[in-house]
Amino acid sequence: MVTGLGHVGIICDDLMKMRDFYTRVIDLTITDEDPECGSCFLSAAPEREHHDLNLGQASSPDHSDGARPRTQGLGQVAFAHATRHKTILYALFHRAPQERISGSRLDSPR
Q1: pTM for the full model?
Q2: Which domains does the chain possess?
């Protein structure tokens, strides 16, 4: 039986923009990355987990490592947040659109 989420991998049209968003806004920590290969691993708890999220740069079929298709869309990725304080959660919720990350959104805190 599945008891939790291992990790999520997202193919990004702009790896560095997404890397910036997940580190600066969502506050994940980079645990490993290889810009030449177009890969970045991030964790919410690096002392316990190498990565919760892997970002990969989209590439064309003529790339030396082969094609990684452009983003086709992702239904949902949910992260638990340490606080249940509505003021903090709403501030994060309202900040996401300002970052202008194509296809990214945060659902309203419950």
Answers
A1: 0.63
A2: 8-59+75-99 (3.10.180.10)
